[in-house]
């Protein structure tokens, strides 16, 4: 079954992850890195992932953005280094992925300059002790990575992935809303009609 699993789960690795989700040990899985902060977990029974986890408290470059491929490869390399990686998750995101803290992997992505420390909107305007304790270590890791110009911080202008996604979304909306008009415009009606 393992050989079949590796063939059907493209680029799956035999590295194991122990996932505890919502307080329940869910098992040990084969892994496949989807992008620089998302990992599919397989039991070996089905070619479809049993669970998908998103590394919590970080945001890595998108695959089509500068340093996206390098960040993806870096996460793959980090997973290969661990014999058994323990991840814990309490909740899912809007896409149904478990938001997981996978110990040193989350931190290493930021320390090595492969991801930003993610500050949730609920903490962006708050200076609460709970937010500070939750975010401070990763923010300090990001500050050090920036200062040392590690990874994506060596780029001339690193664009955070949330801005990259917003720019792409705006560009797509602009392309949909932009009309190509040929000829002369003789009049524009009161409700924007072009004559």
Summarize the SSE layout with pairings.
Layout lengths: L1 H7 L4 E9 L2 E12 L2 E5 L8 E5 L2 E2 L8 H14 L2 E9 L5 E4 L2 H8 L4 E2 L3 H4 L4 H20 L12 H17 L18
Parallel strand pairs: 1-6, 4-7
Antiparallel strand pairs: 1-2, 2-3, 3-4, 5-8, 6-7
Description of the structure:
This protein is α+β, with helices and mostly antiparallel strands and 195 residues long. It has a single domain, classed as OB fold (Dihydrolipoamide Acetyltransferase, E2P) (Beta Barrel). It is 36% helix and 25% strand. It contains six helices and eight strands, in the order αβββββαββαβααα. The protein has helices at residues 2-8, 68-81, 104-111, 121-124, 129-148, 161-177, and strands at residues 13-21, 24-35, 38-42, 51-55, 58-59, 84-92, 98-101, 116-117. Strands 1-2-3-4-7-6 form a six-stranded mixed beta barrel. The chain is globular, with a radius of gyration of 21 Å. Residues 1-12 have low confidence and may be disordered.
Kindly summarize this structure in a few lines:
With 195 residues, this protein is of the alpha+beta class.
Which features characterize this protein?
two-stranded antiparallel ribbon, 195 residues, disordered N terminus, globular, 6-stranded mixed barrel, OB fold (Dihydrolipoamide Acetyltransferase, E2P)
CATH T-level topology: OB fold (Dihydrolipoamide Acetyltransferase, E2P)
Oligomer: single chain
CATH architecture heading: Beta Barrel
* Rg of Cα set: 21 Å
Helical proportion?
25-40%
Largest sheet entry: 6 strands, mixed, barrel
Order of helices and strands: HEEEEEHEEHEHHH
């Amino acid at each position: 079954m393992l050989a079949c699993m590796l063939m059907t789960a493209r680029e799956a690795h035999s590295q194991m992850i122990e996932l505890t989700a919502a307080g329940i040990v869910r098992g040990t899985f084969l892994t496949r890195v989807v992008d620089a902060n998302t990992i599919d977990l397989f039991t070996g029974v089905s070619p479809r992932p049993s669970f998908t986890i998103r590394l919590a408290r970080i945001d890595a470059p998108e695959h089509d953005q500068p340093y996206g491929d390098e960040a993806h490869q870096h996460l793959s390399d980090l997973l290969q280094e661990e014999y058994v990686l323990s991840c814990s998750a309490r909740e899912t995101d809007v896409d149904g992925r478990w938001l997981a803290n996978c110990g040193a992997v989350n931190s290493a992505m930021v320390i090595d300059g492969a991801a930003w420390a993610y500050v949730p909107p609920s903490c962006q305007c708050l200076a609460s002790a709970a937010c500070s304790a939750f975010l401070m270590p990763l923010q300090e890791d990001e500050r050090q990575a920036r200062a040392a110009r590690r990874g994506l911080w060596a780029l001339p202008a690193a664009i955070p992935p949330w801005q990259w996604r917003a720019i792409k979304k705006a560009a797509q909306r602009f392309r949909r809303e932009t009309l190509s008009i040929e000829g002369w415009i003789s009049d524009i009606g009161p409700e924007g009609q072009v004559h």
